[in-house]
Design brief:
It is built from ten helices and nine strands. The strands form two sheets. Strands 2, 4, 5, 6, 7, 8 and 9 form a seven-stranded antiparallel beta sheet that branches. It has a two-stranded parallel sheet with strand order 1-3. A hairpin with a 2-residue loop joins strand 4 (about 35-50) and strand 5. About 40% of the residues lie in helices and about 20% in strands. It is α+β, with helices and mostly antiparallel strands. The protein folds into two domains: about 5-160, Sandwich (Jelly Rolls), CATH 2.60.120.280; about 180-285, Homeodomain-like (Arc Repressor Mutant, subunit A, Orthogonal Bundle). GO terms for molecular function: DNA-binding transcription factor activity; sequence-specific DNA binding. This is Helix-turn-helix transcriptional regulator. Keywords: DNA-binding, Transcription, Transcription regulation. InterPro entries: Homeodomain-like_sf (IPR009057), HTH_AraC (IPR018060), HTH_AraC-typ_CS (IPR018062), Tscrpt_reg_AraC-type_HTH (IPR020449).
Length: about 290
Protein backbone atom coordinates (compact mmCIF):
# COMPACT_ATOMS: atom_id res chain seq x y z
CA UNK A 1 0.00 0.00 0.00
CA UNK A 2 1.50 3.33 -1.09
CA UNK A 3 1.87 6.19 1.36
CA UNK A 4 2.13 9.92 0.72
CA UNK A 5 4.65 12.39 2.09
CA UNK A 6 3.20 15.06 4.37
CA UNK A 7 4.68 18.56 4.47
CA UNK A 8 4.50 19.69 8.10
CA UNK A 9 4.09 23.34 9.25
CA UNK A 10 7.32 23.44 11.30
CA UNK A 11 9.81 26.19 10.38
CA UNK A 12 13.60 25.89 10.42
CA UNK A 13 13.92 28.05 13.55
CA UNK A 14 11.09 26.34 15.48
CA UNK A 15 12.16 24.06 18.34
CA UNK A 16 8.83 22.27 17.81
CA UNK A 17 5.24 22.92 16.73
CA UNK A 18 2.13 21.92 18.62
CA UNK A 19 -1.20 21.35 16.88
CA UNK A 20 -4.53 20.84 18.66
CA UNK A 21 -7.70 19.54 17.01
CA UNK A 22 -11.15 18.87 18.41
CA UNK A 23 -13.58 16.45 16.74
CA UNK A 24 -10.75 15.14 14.55
CA UNK A 25 -11.96 13.34 11.42
CA UNK A 26 -8.93 11.06 10.82
CA UNK A 27 -9.48 11.32 7.07
CA UNK A 28 -5.80 11.76 6.16
CA UNK A 29 -4.45 8.71 4.26
CA UNK A 30 -1.43 6.57 5.10
CA UNK A 31 1.50 9.02 5.22
CA UNK A 32 4.97 9.85 6.51
CA UNK A 33 7.11 12.95 7.03
CA UNK A 34 10.68 13.95 7.83
CA UNK A 35 9.93 15.03 11.40
CA UNK A 36 9.48 13.28 14.73
CA UNK A 37 5.88 13.29 15.93
CA UNK A 38 4.28 12.75 19.34
CA UNK A 39 0.52 12.12 19.10
CA UNK A 40 -1.93 12.22 21.97
CA UNK A 41 -5.43 11.13 20.95
CA UNK A 42 -8.31 11.18 23.43
CA UNK A 43 -11.88 9.83 23.33
CA UNK A 44 -10.98 7.63 20.38
CA UNK A 45 -12.19 4.29 19.08
CA UNK A 46 -10.69 2.86 15.94
CA UNK A 47 -7.38 1.56 14.64
CA UNK A 48 -3.77 2.71 14.49
CA UNK A 49 -1.35 1.61 11.75
CA UNK A 50 2.36 2.30 12.27
CA UNK A 51 4.78 0.60 9.87
CA UNK A 52 3.67 -3.03 9.85
CA UNK A 53 1.79 -2.74 13.15
CA UNK A 54 -2.00 -2.50 13.16
CA UNK A 55 -3.86 -2.31 16.47
CA UNK A 56 -7.36 -1.57 17.69
CA UNK A 57 -7.45 1.45 20.01
CA UNK A 58 -10.05 2.68 22.46
CA UNK A 59 -9.82 5.64 24.82
CA UNK A 60 -6.47 7.44 24.94
CA UNK A 61 -3.55 6.73 22.62
CA UNK A 62 -0.04 8.15 23.07
CA UNK A 63 2.46 7.34 20.32
CA UNK A 64 5.92 8.63 19.37
CA UNK A 65 6.87 8.31 15.70
CA UNK A 66 10.27 8.71 14.11
CA UNK A 67 11.03 10.31 10.71
CA UNK A 68 9.73 8.61 7.55
CA UNK A 69 7.67 6.06 9.47
CA UNK A 70 4.35 5.54 7.67
CA UNK A 71 1.28 5.83 9.87
CA UNK A 72 -2.47 6.44 9.92
CA UNK A 73 -5.35 6.44 12.42
CA UNK A 74 -8.87 5.41 11.38
CA UNK A 75 -11.94 6.15 13.49
CA UNK A 76 -14.85 3.74 13.79
CA UNK A 77 -17.23 6.72 13.65
CA UNK A 78 -18.08 9.08 10.79
CA UNK A 79 -18.68 11.86 13.33
CA UNK A 80 -15.77 11.94 15.74
CA UNK A 81 -15.60 13.40 19.22
CA UNK A 82 -11.89 12.61 19.52
CA UNK A 83 -9.30 15.22 20.37
CA UNK A 84 -5.75 15.24 18.99
CA UNK A 85 -2.67 17.04 20.26
CA UNK A 86 0.38 16.67 18.04
CA UNK A 87 3.94 17.81 18.73
CA UNK A 88 6.31 17.72 15.77
CA UNK A 89 10.04 18.44 15.89
CA UNK A 90 12.81 18.24 13.33
CA UNK A 91 14.94 15.21 12.52
CA UNK A 92 18.20 17.06 13.22
CA UNK A 93 17.12 17.53 16.85
CA UNK A 94 18.71 14.13 17.51
CA UNK A 95 22.07 15.50 16.35
CA UNK A 96 21.81 18.90 18.05
CA UNK A 97 24.26 20.15 20.66
CA UNK A 98 21.92 19.48 23.57
CA UNK A 99 21.77 15.80 22.59
CA UNK A 100 25.58 15.53 22.85
CA UNK A 101 25.51 15.98 26.64
CA UNK A 102 25.55 12.87 28.83
CA UNK A 103 22.28 13.90 30.53
CA UNK A 104 20.53 13.46 27.17
CA UNK A 105 21.63 9.86 26.56
CA UNK A 106 18.21 8.40 27.42
CA UNK A 107 16.44 10.81 25.06
CA UNK A 108 18.87 9.86 22.28
CA UNK A 109 17.99 6.19 22.76
CA UNK A 110 14.29 7.05 22.78
CA UNK A 111 14.50 8.94 19.49
CA UNK A 112 16.47 6.17 17.80
CA UNK A 113 13.91 3.60 18.88
CA UNK A 114 11.03 5.86 17.83
CA UNK A 115 11.95 5.15 14.21
CA UNK A 116 9.99 1.94 14.77
CA UNK A 117 7.18 3.75 16.61
CA UNK A 118 6.57 3.55 20.37
CA UNK A 119 3.21 3.55 22.13
CA UNK A 120 2.89 4.29 25.86
CA UNK A 121 0.45 3.03 28.48
CA UNK A 122 -0.37 4.35 31.97
CA UNK A 123 0.84 5.87 34.18
CA UNK A 124 3.07 7.56 31.58
CA UNK A 125 0.10 8.28 29.32
CA UNK A 126 -1.74 10.29 31.98
CA UNK A 127 1.39 12.22 32.99
CA UNK A 128 2.18 13.20 29.39
CA UNK A 129 -1.43 14.11 28.66
CA UNK A 130 -1.34 16.74 31.40
CA UNK A 131 1.98 18.12 30.13
CA UNK A 132 0.87 18.31 26.51
CA UNK A 133 -2.43 19.96 27.37
CA UNK A 134 -0.54 22.66 29.30
CA UNK A 135 1.47 23.78 26.23
CA UNK A 136 -0.20 26.66 24.42
CA UNK A 137 2.43 27.36 21.76
CA UNK A 138 6.14 27.28 20.99
CA UNK A 139 7.06 30.91 21.50
CA UNK A 140 7.95 31.01 25.19
CA UNK A 141 10.79 29.39 27.12
CA UNK A 142 8.46 27.62 29.55
CA UNK A 143 6.91 25.68 26.66
CA UNK A 144 10.36 24.62 25.49
CA UNK A 145 11.21 23.34 28.97
CA UNK A 146 7.93 21.42 29.12
CA UNK A 147 8.69 19.89 25.71
CA UNK A 148 12.13 18.73 26.93
CA UNK A 149 10.58 17.42 30.13
CA UNK A 150 8.10 15.37 28.08
CA UNK A 151 10.95 13.77 26.14
CA UNK A 152 12.79 13.02 29.36
CA UNK A 153 9.74 11.39 30.97
CA UNK A 154 9.17 9.24 27.87
CA UNK A 155 12.86 8.27 27.73
CA UNK A 156 12.87 6.80 31.25
CA UNK A 157 9.36 5.34 31.11
CA UNK A 158 8.83 1.62 31.60
CA UNK A 159 5.45 1.83 29.87
CA UNK A 160 6.65 1.96 26.25
CA UNK A 161 6.08 -0.70 23.59
CA UNK A 162 7.84 -0.75 20.22
CA UNK A 163 5.35 -1.13 17.38
CA UNK A 164 6.96 -1.86 14.02
CA UNK A 165 9.61 -4.35 12.94
CA UNK A 166 13.12 -3.05 12.09
CA UNK A 167 12.82 -3.96 8.42
CA UNK A 168 9.41 -2.38 7.88
CA UNK A 169 10.40 0.81 9.67
CA UNK A 170 13.64 1.20 7.69
CA UNK A 171 15.33 1.43 11.07
CA UNK A 172 18.51 3.52 10.83
CA UNK A 173 21.86 1.96 11.63
CA UNK A 174 23.79 5.22 11.43
CA UNK A 175 24.21 5.64 15.15
CA UNK A 176 24.72 1.99 16.04
CA UNK A 177 28.14 0.70 17.03
CA UNK A 178 30.39 -0.69 14.31
CA UNK A 179 29.87 -4.26 15.53
CA UNK A 180 26.08 -3.98 15.66
CA UNK A 181 26.03 -2.32 12.23
CA UNK A 182 28.06 -5.20 10.77
CA UNK A 183 25.60 -7.73 12.17
CA UNK A 184 22.51 -5.80 11.06
CA UNK A 185 23.98 -5.43 7.58
CA UNK A 186 24.64 -9.19 7.43
CA UNK A 187 21.01 -9.84 8.36
CA UNK A 188 19.82 -7.33 5.76
CA UNK A 189 21.82 -9.01 2.99
CA UNK A 190 21.41 -12.64 4.04
CA UNK A 191 18.05 -13.01 5.81
CA UNK A 192 16.86 -15.43 3.11
CA UNK A 193 19.65 -17.85 4.07
CA UNK A 194 20.42 -19.72 7.28
CA UNK A 195 22.35 -17.46 9.66
CA UNK A 196 24.05 -19.23 12.56
CA UNK A 197 24.84 -17.54 15.86
CA UNK A 198 28.39 -18.90 15.65
CA UNK A 199 28.90 -17.21 12.27
CA UNK A 200 27.86 -13.75 13.42
CA UNK A 201 29.88 -14.11 16.65
CA UNK A 202 32.95 -14.96 14.56
CA UNK A 203 32.36 -11.86 12.44
CA UNK A 204 32.98 -9.61 15.44
CA UNK A 205 35.64 -11.83 17.05
CA UNK A 206 33.55 -12.82 20.06
CA UNK A 207 32.48 -16.09 21.62
CA UNK A 208 28.82 -17.04 21.21
CA UNK A 209 28.00 -16.34 24.86
CA UNK A 210 29.84 -13.00 24.90
CA UNK A 211 28.21 -11.94 21.64
CA UNK A 212 24.72 -12.94 22.86
CA UNK A 213 25.16 -10.83 26.00
CA UNK A 214 26.59 -7.89 24.03
CA UNK A 215 23.86 -7.93 21.36
CA UNK A 216 21.02 -8.11 23.88
CA UNK A 217 22.52 -5.28 25.95
CA UNK A 218 22.82 -3.03 22.88
CA UNK A 219 19.51 -3.84 21.19
CA UNK A 220 17.25 -5.05 23.99
CA UNK A 221 16.62 -8.44 22.37
CA UNK A 222 18.49 -11.63 21.53
CA UNK A 223 20.03 -12.08 18.09
CA UNK A 224 17.61 -14.93 17.34
CA UNK A 225 14.68 -12.68 18.24
CA UNK A 226 16.07 -9.83 16.12
CA UNK A 227 16.50 -12.12 13.10
CA UNK A 228 12.97 -13.45 13.48
CA UNK A 229 11.58 -9.91 13.82
CA UNK A 230 13.47 -8.85 10.70
CA UNK A 231 12.10 -11.74 8.67
CA UNK A 232 8.57 -11.09 9.94
CA UNK A 233 9.05 -7.45 8.94
CA UNK A 234 9.89 -8.59 5.41
CA UNK A 235 6.74 -10.72 5.50
CA UNK A 236 4.44 -7.84 6.49
CA UNK A 237 6.05 -5.59 3.87
CA UNK A 238 5.40 -8.18 1.17
CA UNK A 239 1.88 -8.85 2.45
CA UNK A 240 0.95 -5.17 2.30
CA UNK A 241 2.87 -4.06 -0.79
CA UNK A 242 2.83 -7.00 -3.22
CA UNK A 243 0.48 -9.60 -4.69
CA UNK A 244 2.76 -12.53 -3.84
CA UNK A 245 1.12 -15.67 -2.46
CA UNK A 246 1.53 -16.66 1.20
CA UNK A 247 3.69 -19.60 0.14
CA UNK A 248 5.98 -17.38 -1.96
CA UNK A 249 6.31 -14.85 0.86
CA UNK A 250 7.22 -17.57 3.35
CA UNK A 251 10.35 -18.63 1.46
CA UNK A 252 11.18 -15.14 0.19
CA UNK A 253 11.47 -14.01 3.82
CA UNK A 254 13.86 -16.81 4.79
CA UNK A 255 11.55 -19.31 6.49
CA UNK A 256 12.33 -22.96 5.73
CA UNK A 257 8.80 -24.33 6.15
CA UNK A 258 5.26 -23.02 5.83
CA UNK A 259 4.24 -24.47 9.21
CA UNK A 260 7.10 -22.69 11.06
CA UNK A 261 6.30 -19.51 9.19
CA UNK A 262 2.59 -19.57 10.07
CA UNK A 263 3.34 -20.40 13.70
CA UNK A 264 5.88 -17.57 14.10
CA UNK A 265 3.61 -15.05 12.38
CA UNK A 266 0.57 -15.95 14.43
CA UNK A 267 2.57 -15.80 17.67
CA UNK A 268 3.61 -12.22 16.90
CA UNK A 269 0.39 -10.88 15.34
CA UNK A 270 -2.24 -13.23 16.85
CA UNK A 271 -3.73 -13.81 13.38
CA UNK A 272 -2.69 -15.69 10.25
CA UNK A 273 -0.79 -13.99 7.39
CA UNK A 274 -3.91 -14.17 5.21
CA UNK A 275 -6.04 -12.51 7.89
CA UNK A 276 -3.35 -9.85 8.45
CA UNK A 277 -3.32 -8.95 4.75
CA UNK A 278 -7.12 -8.70 4.58
CA UNK A 279 -7.36 -6.67 7.82
CA UNK A 280 -4.55 -4.30 6.81
CA UNK A 281 -6.07 -3.37 3.46
CA UNK A 282 -9.54 -3.14 5.00
CA UNK A 283 -8.32 -0.66 7.64
CA UNK A 284 -6.26 1.43 5.19
CA UNK A 285 -8.99 1.66 2.56
CA UNK A 286 -11.97 2.47 4.80
Amino acid sequence: MKSIKEITPIKSDDPFVILKHKNALFDYPLHFHNEYELNLITNFKGSRTVGDSNEKIEGIDLTLLGPELKHVWKSDFAISKAGVITIQFQEHFLHSKIMSYSVSKDIKKLLELSKRGITFSNPTKNIIQEKMESIEGNEDFKSLLTFLEILHILSISKDGKVLSSPQSANYSQKRESRRISLIMNKVKLNYKKQIKLSDVADMVNMSESAFSHYFKKRTGQSFTSYLLDYRLGVVTKLLTETNMTINEICYEAGFNSLSNFNRAFKKKHSISPKEFKLNYHKEIMR
